[in-house]
Amino acid sequence: MPLQVELYLEDCVDDSSAIAINISDNYPIPGETWENWFQQWLEILQEYLPTAPSYEISLRLTNDTEMQTLNSQYRQQDKPTDVLAFASLEADLPQSEKMLASMPLYLGDVVVSIDTAQRQAQQQEHSLSTELAWLTAHGLLHLLGWDHPDEESLMEMLTQQVALLKEIGINIDLDL
């Protein structure tokens, strides 16, 4: 039976007020596609998942201004970054066996800067969709406990990202 995934997709916020992104112009990836991708990725990463009847993930596509605020607040780095991940599995939340058996397990939040993704896509000479998938896969791995404090673990994580993107039909050659 396939894993059940509920994705909460949030759109970009401007400092002055909430502004929805024009989906046809700036969301090269529809919400349904994101859900399918997360479904496929979690199937591949099942060994890293705690057992649950279903999983929830929040994906927020935002701008550099908001990303800089978040990066400053949570990582004490006053600059925008490409992706942030806020893993709920790291929190010691009280959960009973009954809760674990009946409720979706919230894995956490992945936040991606569309502004930075666009620049990186141009630098890498691939599409914005590819870059957004790449960054989101990276964030998902962080939600599941992956990290890259050294070169060896970074290479393992990048190799896994390549495999995740290949699963959804995106081929990236990193010369690993």
Total individual domains: 1
CATH superfamily: Metalloproteases ("zincins"), catalytic domain
The CATH C-level name is: Alpha Beta
Structural class: alpha/beta
Beta-sheet strand percentage? Answer: 15-25%
What name does the CATH topology carry? Collagenase (Catalytic Domain)
Largest sheet: 4 strands, mixed
- Judging by the overall fold, what is the CATH architecture? 3-Layer(aba) Sandwich
Order of strands, widest sheet: 1-2-4-3
Identify the overall geometry: globular
Q: Return the string of H and E elements.
A: EHHEHEHEHHH
Number of distinct beta strands: 4
Low-confidence stretches: 13-26
The termini sit apart by 34 Å
Mean pLDDT: 84
How much helix, percentage-wise, in residues?
40-55%
Rg from Cα:
16 Å
Structural write-up:
With 176 residues, this protein is of the alpha/beta class. The chain has one domain (4-13, 26-168): Metalloproteases ("zincins"), catalytic domain (Collagenase (Catalytic Domain), 3-Layer(aba) Sandwich), CATH 3.40.390.30. Helices cover 45% and strands 16% of the residues. The protein contains 7 helices and 4 strands. Strands 1-2-4-3 form a 4-stranded mixed beta sheet, sandwiched between helices. Helix 5 packs across helix 6 (128-143) and helix 6 (128-143) packs across helix 7 (151-167). The longest helix has 17 residues, at 151-167.
